[in-house]
Amino acid sequence: MSETPADSGSPRRTSAGFGRVLVVVYGVFAVSASARALVQILRDFDEAPFAYALSAFAAGVYIVATVALARGTPRSHRVATIAVLIELVGVLVVGALTLVDPDLFPRDTVWTGFGRGYGFVPLVLPVVGLWWLWRTRPTT
Amino acid sequence: MLQVACLVAALVLGVEGARGRAPLWWHLGVVAVVEALLVVQLVVAIVLLVQGGQIVGSTGTFLAYLVGTVLALPVTALWGLGEPSRWTLVALAVCCLVIAVLVVRLDQIWTTG
After folding, report:
1. SS3 B57
2. Complex ipTM, two decimals?
3. Binary contact (B72, A35; C-beta < 8 A)
4. Which residues from A are below 8 Å from B62, CB to CB?
5. Contact flag B23-A1 (C-beta cutoff 8 Å)
6. Of A1, A3, A17, residue with least CA distance to A136
7. Helix axes of B59-81 and A18-44: crossing angle, nearest 10 degrees
């Protein structure tokens, strides 16, 4: 039960310290978004193919982000940064589109209304993720 | 009631983590108690279903949430204890919060759909 790099103020790996918590939150979204997309696509894909395809895409982004953050190598740091950026753009664009033109997405996705169905965590999460990735950026 | 237990556990573990505590045995005891309650919920729900209980909402979603509530804490504990620190406790607290939400949703799916 020793001190972690995060406790001493200079974390090196994305999976260390606070990163443990971040990976859990990303994992929750990876699992729940995947399950949701699977149920939607298996049950009635034809009803809202665009919205359901977006659900699957979002699930994929969360899975990549979770694995990349958990690995914590310099290379996975880059992968995680790209995934979290896509996530941020996704939640902002889809959030805005669902407000402007609700008919575009007749079924809800994780990113609908900036993630209001999930307590707006999908909106806050990429910001926290980018902050963490910045703090743990490779120095070499 | 179960969601209250989850919230209490989240509060206790979250406060301990915020105080900078590393995981102690009694913290894992709290997690074990919550997990035991979740297993009881799983068994009761399955028994009710087998006996012909009717779910108003989606059965698939109900079962997915049910399994999720039981798996979440062991997975988080294994992951968090890979590097024991205050953040292990915060991660477990977050997990308990998520489970509390899932328990509420389970009740909603069962009763109102």
Report:
1. coil
2. 0.92
3. no
4. none
5. yes
6. A17
7. 160
